[in-house]
């Protein structure tokens, strides 16, 4: 199958851009600035699953962008029993968005694999993230220039795994599904979503969580060289 692939589509957060690492550094910075004195590790341990669940609700159109940004902080503080008033939660929410893209840690092997792929294929991004944040992340981590097109859910009005976002991305890339492959960390949004419209897929299981599925799977980005 790989010999006919011409277009490689990547997810951004948790696939190329190390979201958890950058997010932790952002919270460390904004808690200091706002004199929130709590254990960062305790906070992150409850925040990360809460955030993932909010993104699932957001994909399913069950919460708005602003409800996600407020709720994930409010719920995390509540869960560790720290009282933070609404005004501060909104302030932290804004500061988080402002500062997040200034951190630029990528997954190990990102630049090497993009260098390896760039002359062989056209490279693209499909992300459920917010437009303004995603552009800044790619620019600050020096990977924006690798990608011919970037599709985000705000442009299309739907989120992965909705087939519309994949079809939109294929259209602007002037690509056929049969000549395209999607690489991402989220089984439901990235892998099943792309598979359902006829794209080839590779699951980036960076936590090496041994998912029980039949899709191609890598645990390090450099392993893409074995498939492409």
Structure description:
The radius of gyration is 18 Å and the shape is globular. Strands 3-2-1-4-5-6 form a six-stranded parallel sheet, with helices on both faces. It contains nine helices and six strands, in the order E-H-H-H-H-H-E-H-E-H-H-E-H-E-E. By secondary structure, it is α/β, with parallel strands linked by helices. Helix content is 47%, strand content 12%. Helix 1 (19-33) crosses helix 4, helix 2 (40-59) packs antiparallel against helix 3 (65-79) and helix 3 crosses helix 4 (86-100). The chain has helices at 19-33, 40-59, 65-79, 86-100, 110-118, 131-140, 153-156, 163-173, 187-195; strands spanning 7-10, 122-127, 149-152, 180-184, 200-204, 216-218.
Give a brief outline of the structure.
With 228 residues, the chain is α/β, with parallel strands linked by helices. The chain has 9 helices and 6 strands.
Percent strand = 5-15%
Distance between the termini: 10 Å
Structural class by helix and strand composition:
alpha/beta
User: Which geometry do the CA atoms define?
Assistant: globular
**Largest sheet, order of strands side by side?**
3-2-1-4-5-6
- In percent, how helical is the residue content? 40-55%
Helix count, per DSSP? Answer: 9
Return Rg in Å: 18 Å
- Major pleated sheet: 6 strands, parallel
In N-to-C order, the SSE pattern is: EHHHHHEHEHHEHEE
Please give the number of β-strands.
6
What is the typical, i.e. mean, pLDDT?
95
- Pick out the low-confidence regions: none
């Amino acid at each position: 199958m790989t010999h006919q692939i011409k277009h490689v589509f990547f997810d951004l957060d948790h696939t190329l851009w190390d979201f958890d690492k950058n997010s932790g550094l952002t919270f460390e910075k904004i808690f200091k600035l706002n004199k929130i004195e709590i254990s960062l590790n305790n906070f992150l341990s409850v925040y990360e699953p809460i955030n993932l669940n909010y993104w699932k609700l957001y994909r399913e159109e069950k919460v708005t962008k602003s409800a996600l940004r407020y709720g994930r902080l409010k719920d995390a503080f509540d869960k560790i029993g720290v009282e933070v008033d609404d005004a501060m939660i909104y302030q932290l929410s804004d500061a988080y968005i402002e500062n997040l893209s200034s951190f630029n840690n990528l997954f190990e092997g990102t630049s090497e694999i993009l260098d390896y792929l760039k002359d062989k294929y056209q490279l693209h991004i499909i992300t459920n993230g917010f437009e303004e944040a995603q552009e800044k992340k790619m620019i600050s981590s020096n990977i924006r220039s690798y990608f011919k097109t970037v599709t985000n859910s705000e442009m299309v009005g739907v989120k992965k795994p909705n087939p519309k976002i994949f079809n939109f991305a294929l259209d602007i890339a002037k690509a056929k599904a049969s000549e395209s492959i999607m690489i991402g960390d989220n089984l439901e949004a990235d892998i099943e979503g792309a598979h359902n419209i006829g794209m080839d897929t590779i699951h980036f299981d960076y936590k090496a969580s041994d998912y029980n599925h039949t899709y191609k799977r890598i645990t390090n980005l450099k392993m893409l060289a074995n498939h492409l």
